[in-house]
Amino acid sequence: QVQLVESGGGLVHSGGSLRLSCAASGFIFRTNGMSWYRQAPGKERELVAGISATGGTTTYADSVKGRFTISRDNAKNTVYLQMNSLQPEDTAVYYCKAVLFPGPRHYWGQGTQVTVSS
Q1: Is the CB of residue 81 less than 8 Å from the CB of residue 61?
Q2: Beta strand pairing status for 10-13 and 112-117?
Q3: 42-64: buried (b, 16+ CB within 10 Å) or exposed (e) per residue?
Q4: Tell me: the pLDDT tens digits for 58-103?
Q5: Which DSSP state fits 1?
Q6: pLDDT of residue 102
Protein backbone atom coordinates (compact mmCIF):
# COMPACT_ATOMS: atom_id res chain seq x y z
CA GLN A 1 0.00 0.00 0.00
CA VAL A 2 1.47 3.30 -1.10
CA GLN A 3 1.67 5.89 1.66
CA LEU A 4 3.01 9.44 1.61
CA VAL A 5 3.14 11.26 4.93
CA GLU A 6 4.05 14.94 5.03
CA SER A 7 5.29 16.81 8.06
CA GLY A 8 7.02 20.06 8.95
CA GLY A 9 4.35 22.62 8.21
CA GLY A 10 3.47 25.41 10.58
CA LEU A 11 3.12 29.14 11.13
CA VAL A 12 6.06 31.42 10.38
CA HIS A 13 6.61 35.11 9.91
CA SER A 14 7.42 36.60 6.54
CA GLY A 15 11.07 35.96 5.73
CA GLY A 16 11.20 32.81 7.80
CA SER A 17 12.02 29.24 6.83
CA LEU A 18 10.49 25.79 7.08
CA ARG A 19 11.54 22.35 5.94
CA LEU A 20 8.87 19.95 4.84
CA SER A 21 9.39 16.20 4.80
CA CYS A 22 7.50 13.46 2.98
CA ALA A 23 8.07 9.90 4.14
CA ALA A 24 7.19 7.35 1.47
CA SER A 25 6.40 3.66 1.74
CA GLY A 26 4.78 0.88 -0.26
CA PHE A 27 6.80 1.32 -3.45
CA ILE A 28 10.41 1.37 -4.64
CA PHE A 29 11.19 4.96 -3.73
CA ARG A 30 14.62 5.17 -5.33
CA THR A 31 13.25 4.46 -8.82
CA ASN A 32 10.59 7.18 -8.82
CA GLY A 33 10.59 10.90 -9.27
CA MET A 34 8.79 12.88 -6.60
CA SER A 35 7.18 16.28 -6.45
CA TRP A 36 5.68 18.88 -4.14
CA TYR A 37 2.45 20.72 -4.91
CA ARG A 38 0.54 23.35 -3.02
CA GLN A 39 -3.02 24.60 -2.91
CA ALA A 40 -4.01 27.96 -1.51
CA PRO A 41 -7.62 28.73 -0.53
CA GLY A 42 -9.74 29.34 -3.61
CA LYS A 43 -6.95 28.40 -5.97
CA GLU A 44 -6.03 25.34 -8.00
CA ARG A 45 -3.34 22.98 -6.86
CA GLU A 46 -0.02 23.92 -8.43
CA LEU A 47 3.35 22.27 -8.91
CA VAL A 48 6.02 23.73 -6.65
CA ALA A 49 9.03 21.51 -7.30
CA GLY A 50 10.00 18.13 -8.71
CA ILE A 51 13.00 15.87 -8.38
CA SER A 52 14.18 12.90 -10.42
CA ALA A 53 14.70 9.42 -8.98
CA THR A 54 18.42 9.94 -8.42
CA GLY A 55 18.06 13.56 -7.38
CA GLY A 56 20.17 14.71 -10.28
CA THR A 57 17.43 16.77 -11.90
CA THR A 58 15.16 19.27 -10.19
CA THR A 59 12.51 21.67 -11.43
CA TYR A 60 10.83 24.61 -9.75
CA ALA A 61 7.90 26.90 -10.26
CA ASP A 62 9.07 30.39 -11.18
CA SER A 63 7.48 31.76 -8.02
CA VAL A 64 9.77 29.74 -5.75
CA LYS A 65 13.04 29.61 -7.71
CA GLY A 66 15.95 30.73 -5.59
CA ARG A 67 13.96 30.37 -2.35
CA PHE A 68 12.91 26.71 -2.23
CA THR A 69 15.07 23.61 -2.59
CA ILE A 70 13.81 20.09 -3.18
CA SER A 71 16.00 17.16 -2.18
CA ARG A 72 15.70 13.49 -1.35
CA ASP A 73 17.33 10.81 0.74
CA ASN A 74 16.79 7.46 -0.94
CA ALA A 75 18.18 5.62 2.08
CA LYS A 76 15.38 7.11 4.18
CA ASN A 77 12.65 7.02 1.51
CA THR A 78 12.07 10.71 2.15
CA VAL A 79 11.79 13.80 0.01
CA TYR A 80 12.26 17.28 1.44
CA LEU A 81 11.31 20.82 0.59
CA GLN A 82 13.46 23.51 2.18
CA MET A 83 11.58 26.80 2.03
CA ASN A 84 13.44 30.04 2.73
CA SER A 85 12.41 33.68 2.53
CA LEU A 86 8.79 32.68 2.93
CA GLN A 87 6.15 35.20 1.94
CA PRO A 88 2.42 35.42 2.75
CA GLU A 89 1.64 34.27 -0.79
CA ASP A 90 3.34 30.96 0.02
CA THR A 91 0.51 30.19 2.44
CA ALA A 92 -1.08 26.94 1.31
CA VAL A 93 -1.50 23.28 2.02
CA TYR A 94 1.57 21.51 0.67
CA TYR A 95 1.25 18.02 -0.78
CA CYS A 96 3.75 15.36 -1.71
CA LYS A 97 3.05 13.40 -4.88
CA ALA A 98 4.31 10.20 -6.45
CA VAL A 99 3.50 8.95 -9.93
CA LEU A 100 4.02 5.23 -10.35
CA PHE A 101 4.15 3.01 -13.42
CA PRO A 102 2.62 1.01 -14.97
CA GLY A 103 -0.26 3.41 -15.04
CA PRO A 104 0.36 6.19 -14.49
CA ARG A 105 -0.97 5.94 -10.95
CA HIS A 106 -1.04 9.16 -8.94
CA TYR A 107 -0.64 9.14 -5.18
CA TRP A 108 -0.93 12.09 -2.82
CA GLY A 109 -0.11 12.65 0.81
CA GLN A 110 -2.62 14.15 3.22
CA GLY A 111 -0.98 17.58 3.05
CA THR A 112 0.63 19.85 5.58
CA GLN A 113 -0.45 23.44 6.24
CA VAL A 114 2.03 26.26 5.80
CA THR A 115 0.93 29.69 6.98
CA VAL A 116 3.12 32.76 6.53
CA SER A 117 2.13 35.88 8.42
CA SER A 118 3.07 39.36 7.24
Answers
A1: no
A2: parallel
A3: eeeeeebbbbeeebeebebeeeb
A4: 999 999 999 999 999 999 999 999 999 999 999 999 999 999 988 8
A5: -
A6: 87
